[in-house]
């Protein structure tokens, strides 16, 4: 059976994997530990589940530790997450105390390992106080923030900053997400895994079977938005764009696919608005999918002619990356990380209104040759810039940089 | 016409990887851009001129540096964008000179403007700097004709290192291929002339690699 690196070489090209092997040479023997708060579920666990085995295969002595916590701990860290994203969240003193105690308790078990490591990556706010409880640490500690902290709720950021300020470095996903800290702040854009269920190649028969089962007619054009039912994703604007386009392309269908809004009152309210706006149109398919429906989402994206991500505000927008990887041009909101990925007339179009989205959708559905060409460019752009291998290369670069030098150029023998 | 190949200093293929670093400095209008250029670490200005090709971004065919692209797309100042877009980073021996040229152009534009050009909060210019890790690709060639077989195998970042980054390392601000070829007894002048006509700033790195491959194949022939 081919190794994981060999499988990625089949997608990215062998020279990309050779490059990783060369870059990792000075890191051989280094002890590296990643720490987060869950082994499964969520983007961080997803990325670590891929990166850690690849680092091992490259010869790094790497391990992945997960801290434990009770319901209050996770209630608190969920609050941190929302607050870093800009929501006004008041944190009761009791929850903050429990957060610190939980980290203290976890540090008792992890201290020896963490203090002995050459590099420790602490992911997101959950385990951030661990550093404070490891006074004998000898390695470099890096706080990896996966959250869009561009406009944090200040009282919560002020509280968290006292834990993360003592780190040797931090990593943010985009320059716009970084907050001032008294250490070097690296930037690593997110990535997608081309071999995951969400992105792996699917047979046409599987795509047809999934999508037909959902009531979509593949003989007719389909445009799709995959995202949470969130006001900032503007699903109602998407429906308006669909209606404006349908005047000219009456056979058009729309898929709005998002997660089940079971316990999120805001999502339920947006979903109700969406249903009202859809007004029982049989060509609008609102799909509530479970969190693990990765293969179905993959099939839906591959069955679509155009993908929309008409966000009014967006962090990076990995759903855009996923769509582009499937060779689909994206009509995206002119905001956040979508701007880095969608380039007008190249990989899709940036729009500011439902009218703009409709105009571009009509254009692409009329110019089928251009739609295909832009889709191919989009896939190639993702291959060059947003796959897991690039993410891994940047982690290795930062590790080399932290262990082997200062200054703006490090020459390895 | 292929020249006589003689034993010479070998050419080591090297590669590089970039760690991007936020400086924390940002600008929302032209005056802030000017003020930040004055105070930002010198590596940041170099980054915004040179490193665009190694960053996750779609190649902007119109501009070869981030200052020009931002002036056009965020400030919507076409005149400034055109002026900044013509700054040739290879024409300066010192970083300080390039910084001064940038400042002169921006200040001239500020003098001409009745209002300070401004952009929205989510289109700010973020000053980034970087650390470059340079490492061996574990390939060395001794004959120029071997370029035919090694260049197609080079990574995008290796092409960047030898064809773009070289211009700020080498005497005369030329790419590493020419710097090596000139060292041969007969100099490969005609091949170097062809290479000097390749403008590296307006194509993507994969396109640049393809262009170099074609040049070396035309010159040396395919079977090497």
Overview of this structure, please?
The complex is a heterodimer of chains A (413) and B (224). Chain A is α/β, with parallel strands linked by helices. Helix content of chain A is 46%, strand content 15%. Chain A has 15 helices and 13 strands. In chain A, strand 7 (222-226), helix 8 and strand 8 (253-259) form a beta-alpha-beta unit. The longest helix of chain A is centred in the first third of the chain and has 24 residues, at 93-116. In chain A, 47% of the residues are buried. Chain B is an alpha+beta fold and 224 residues long. Chain B has two domains: 11-15 and 139-220; 16-129, no CATH class. Chain B has ten helices and two strands; from the N terminus they run βαααααβααααα. Chain B has helices spanning 30-39, 42-50, 66-73, 78-85, 95-112, 147-150, 156-164, 176-181, 189-196, 205-220; strands spanning 11-27, 125-141. A two-stranded antiparallel sheet of chain B has the order 1-2. In chain B, helix 1 runs antiparallel to helix 5, helix 3 packs antiparallel against helix 4 and helix 7 (156-164) packs across helix 10. Classes of the chains: A alpha/beta (413), B alpha+beta (224). Chain A binds chain B through residues 15-16, 18-19, 22-23, 25, 172, 175-176, 178, 180, 184-189, 335-336, 340-341, 343, 346-347, 381, 384-386, 390, 393-394, 396-398, 400-401, 404-405, 407-413, and chain B through 15, 17-22, 24, 26, 43, 46, 56-58, 122, 124, 126, 128-138, 153-158, 204, 206. Strand 13 (409-411) of chain A pairs parallel with strand 2 of chain B, so a sheet runs across the interface.
Overall shape of chain B: it is elongated
| CATH arch. level architecture of the largest domain in chain A | 3-Layer(aba) Sandwich
* Overall spatial form of chain A: globular
Number of domains of chain B: 2
Radius of gyration of chain B: 20 Å
Integer average pLDDT of chain B: 89
The low-confidence parts of chain A are none
Poorly predicted sequence stretches spanning 5 or more consecutive residues of chain B: none
Number of strands of chain B: 2
User: Number of helical runs of chain B?
Assistant: 10
Strand order of the largest sheet of chain A: 2-1-3-4-5-6
The percentage helix of chain A is 40-55%
> How would a crystallographer describe the biggest sheet of chain B?
2 strands, antiparallel
